[in-house]
Amino acid sequence: MKISKRAAWRLLIRGIEHPETTMYVMHCRYVGDLACRIASALGYDGDFAAGLGYLHDIGRKIDSPNHVYAGWKYLSELGLEEYAAVCMTHSFLENDIECTCARTPQPSDLGYDAIKEFLKNHQNTFYDRLIQLCDLLCMHTGPVSLAERIADIERRKGTHAKSAYHRACAEKLLADIDGKLQLEAGTMVWCQYESVKNDYRILPERVLVAVDLQADFVDGALGSPAAVAAARRAAEKIAGFAGKVFATFDTHGADYMFTAEGLNLPVPHCVQGTPGWAAWGPVAEALNAKGYTLVMKNTFGSVTLPDAIRREVGHDDIEIEVIGLCTDICVVSNALLLKAAFPEVNVRVDSACCAGVTPEKHAAALETMRSCQIDVY
Description:
The longest helix is centred in the middle third of the chain and has 22 residues, at about 165-185. It is built from 18 helices and eight strands. The protein has a six-stranded parallel beta sheet. The chain has a two-stranded antiparallel sheet with strand order 1-2. The radius of gyration is 26 Å and the shape is elongated. It is of the alpha/beta class.
């Protein structure tokens, strides 16, 4: 069974709070991106190659010392046999359990017999060999030369009796794929990983949606002490956020009291041009310092927000985080709209940066969002 590279990436980072600072995750990311470029240049399935690269070291989050066997077992149980195979093959060139960088597996190691048997019976595909090469060209900081990568591993983990044999096999693997690239695509492996270094970005790209952090909702007509506390935390989050920021502004006119919302909630608020419509002080400072996209709306949820995100970001490989006021009205409305518009995207809500009309309604809205597979934390 094949899965998209986005699904593979999501599987890798599931349960990891900060993937961008997790070394093996970043290594997998570079391996996948480099594999994608080389495969695509040679007419192979780049998306599939990327997914294989992202998942080749997934065993490290299960049992790092035995990551080869752990990753193979985990992905096999999920029915992802082709991805499981690269967990086994990526470390061992020429299907030889001793043709590996640094320490060779020992009979006492968990899964040793399974690894040896698998390598004996498995015939490497182009994708197996590609991931082997990319694994030997990428560190957690980005692509490097083959010599740099092997030297780094041997410096950290030592050498063994067949280290020279492994280096020779690695050089042959590089020469083989380099030759294919030059013959079929008129380029070289070096060019591909230079482009990865120059065009790299973390996926999914992070997006923050700050919902209605306006003066009237914080300490104005519809404000509360809970809203003030949440808005202070929200301002801090906006200031430190690494990604694009979108801010929705509840926007009404002078006729608010005669609208459907006004008839049900007869409290004038967020009338455009009034002090209550503006972003609350600390939030305004954070937004202006950060830079943001304003999305005005005249009702609880913004149907134009998803398109604004697509237009500004330029792709759907994103993770969306939602904060703001009020949890049980505009936050839940926009979070559900975003989940509907981006069903394969992880939508998260930082509950500490939200406040509801009442604590009970805040809690109930959070549960509603959890029920709709929105990640509330």
